[in-house]
Every structure is written in C-alpha cells, then in structure tokens.
Amino acid sequence: MKKILGIISITVLIFSNSANAGKWGEGELQLTRGMADYFIQFIRGKGNKNPADFYVTLDGTDGTSWYCSAGRCKEGDSINDIKLCEIQTGKKCKKFAFKRTIKWKNGINSGKYKESTISSKWSNEKIYAKLTELGFYNNDFSKITDPKPKITKKNTENSSADMVNQIKQLDELYKSGVITKEEFTKAKKKLLN
What we know:
It is built from seven helices and four strands, in the order ααββαββαααα. By secondary structure, it is an alpha+beta fold. It has two domains: 19-148; 151-193. A four-stranded antiparallel beta sheet has the order 2-1-3-4. Strand 3 and strand 4 form a beta hairpin.
C-alpha cells in the first residue's frame, strides 16, 4: 500500500510541476513607467478584491492582472491566463507576481516571500524603489535600447487576419467560461483599437 501511495504522490508531483512549468518569467525584465504604475494599482487591490495573478509581456510594456474576492485567494489557471494576456497584448507573456509577491527570477530577485513582497501601504516612491532594487524598473542594462517606439508600416492584410484569429481565440475563452463577458468585451475593444 505504501508503494502505491508513493507512486501516486510522485506522479502527482511530476504532473503538477510540468503543468506549472514555464508560467513564471525568468531573465532580464524592465517595466515601463506605465506598467510600474499598473503594478502599483494591482498591489493596492480593486475595491473589495485582493490581488491574485499579475502577468507581464516579456518586453515589460504591457500586461494583465486578476483579482479575487476577499478571503482565500488561489492562483488562477496560468495556461489560460497567459493565453488571454497574449491575445490582449499581442505579445508573449509570463507570470510576474502572485498576490503581492514578485516571483519573476532575474538574477537579482529570488522570488522568496519576504524579500520580494510589496506592501499595499507603501508609497508609490517606495514601490518604485523596491522594483528598482529587485532589477525590474529604472535599471540601465546594456540590452535596453532607446525607449522611443519605432514607427513601421504594418501589412494591414496580415494584421487583419491576426486580429480575426485573436478575436476567435477570445471568443473560445469566453464560451468555455475562462473569461467573463466584461473581460471579453474589454479585450476585443483593445484589439479593435
């Protein structure tokens, strides 16, 4: 009996680790001022809701977040949340934080609870300073280029096809119950603008 329980435990661990593999971001990441401000809003909660999951694009320019009702808060479905973030932003996303703890590993941030947790009571300046200390904001890395966006002419035919596919994916997420009608409408509006 112990042998069977051991095999079941190992199997569950392997599958749970593989399901979570790749959800957390790793490597250099610099949040723009807008994303740092968005993260601060997330940290402070939304009405009577607490911060749950925060996702960010790999270039640090955009992202999405999820809240939970007061009380117990569990992590959301990272696979579907990442897909939704990628649909909304049009860029590759990874998970940045759970609740008020930054889990993204970048060589400076370890993701450990005490060292990487942000208090909702801190001033904006203190949060900016903590993000800088952890290597996520206002750092001068050699890989970072001029923050001014380059204006390029888009191929409107390909852009339209991509947009249609993204709206179809959003619709599938809505129909399967992964996102609410409000989230669907918001994401669709963002794509169309």
